[in-house]
Amino acid sequence: MTLIASDASSYRLLPFRFMRMQAESDRDVLITSETGEYLWVSDPQLQDLGFKRLQPGSAFYRDLLARHFIYEPGRHDPLPQMAAQYRSRKDFLFQGPALHLFVVTLRCNHTCQYCQVSRAPLGGSGHDLSEADARAAVERMFESNSRVLTVEFQGGEPLLAFERVRQIVEWVVERNVLEQRDIQFVITTTLYHLTDDILDFAKLHRIQFSTSLDGPASLHNANRPTPTRNSFERTLEGIRRVREHLGHDAVSALTTLTARSLEQPRAIIDEYVKQGFSSISLRPLSPYGFASRSAQRLDYPIERYVAFYKEALAYLLELNQQGVYLSESYASLLLKNILTPFSSGYVDLRSPTGAGTAALVYNYDGYVYPSDEARMLLEMGEEGLRLGSVHQPLSELLRSPVMEALLSSGVAETLPGCSDCALVAFCGADPVEHFARQGDPVGHRSFSSFCKKNMGLLKHLFELLRDADDDVQRVLLSWLNRRSYADVGLSGYRG
Ligand code: SF4
């Protein structure tokens, strides 16, 4: 809910939102300012604030003043400081798309049950990015004004089209002699088709690998079958080879959670610890591509995912206190949004939406999409979300009717449900997901999985920040600062 200023006494209210949460203490109401500052208050305090019964000079009054919930007309002008805070939080708006996904082929030898991209068979033709389209995509990427660029190769299985990957990397490196951008290359791969030649090339250009590890062998092989039924072993072998050639941190892993996965949070986490990863990403299934068709078997209500997530997070917090460093990547992004003046910049947690403004996808068919999810809809027969051809200038693609539609439904602060939600400063807008799930990019938050997930996770983190003991707080701060638990002291950041 939102309260707006009235002018009945010496101080004025600034716009703020509030939300009641679980009551562990009398401070069960979270109030958040327009610029993302927050404070826990009791119900009587909220009433005093709203009805302008605050005692000037009290600690509570000073807190509210410092965090821009109130101001004193004639004594100070909060707007310049609030504008600076707002600018910091929305700083990503000053940069063009930084994440550029090149879908070099749709071919793949895996038959993953939840596959989001409707892969093509190994020998399938007409599913590779052409040389001319790849060259044009590199041009589009450099038309972005972002100083930092990530070139991510996706599939299908990109290593099946490695010659195209090699060409693109070489063109980018050559062009960057003049451009002088900060460029990171990533290949998202099963690692199944890794060769020494690929590893040598990756070493030369400091290419990172991102792979899928769904948990222990039984779970991984069930989720990600191959004709030879050894996908888990081949993944581990690939991880070992990348680490040997390029160093331990040159490979990261993602897990996709099927209904089967939700029964074994500890086993999944234990596998990541065993394989020496420092980060795990516990992401739910997406409603796209094959995943949608297999939904009845694999999907689950988002409430089950949130319950799983809380259990997994509790286990991770326990392990970290024992000296194992393993952060959960989505929690780390949310913590950055909550505890710092800056946005994590993560595409799904941006408002205005990150689709097209933060990321662009150059598909194998020569068309450009505003996000990976948007191109996955194409494989479901939905073409409506393409921005245009890779041969059109970036300025034209970003002015396309699809971009206009996404942006007009992609500002969370203006969306029904979000506009008066106390969590909006830390959340994002995802018009592509709402279009995919609800057939409407604006969407209805009461039925939105995106909202239920973010609301569930944000509330849980806020409650941990308010109620958990110092050891848990130290783990959360260690994830935020990417430092070991032992290196983190507690500073007085609690609201
Ligand atoms: S999506 Fe849900 S949690 Fe996020 S701001 Fe909107 S209403 Fe709040």
Automatic annotation (TrEMBL):
Gene3D superfamilies, sorted: Aldolase class I (3.20.20.70)
SUPFAM superfamilies per the UniProt record, alphabetical: Radical SAM enzymes
Signal peptide: none
Superkingdom field: Bacteria
Record keyword Cell membrane present: no
Cofactor: [4Fe-4S] cluster
Keywords recorded for this protein, A-Z: Iron, Iron-sulfur, Metal-binding, S-adenosyl-L-methionine
Segments forming domain Radical SAM core: 94-322
Gene Ontology MF, one: iron-sulfur cluster binding
Protein's name according to its UniProt entry: His-Xaa-Ser system radical SAM maturase HxsB
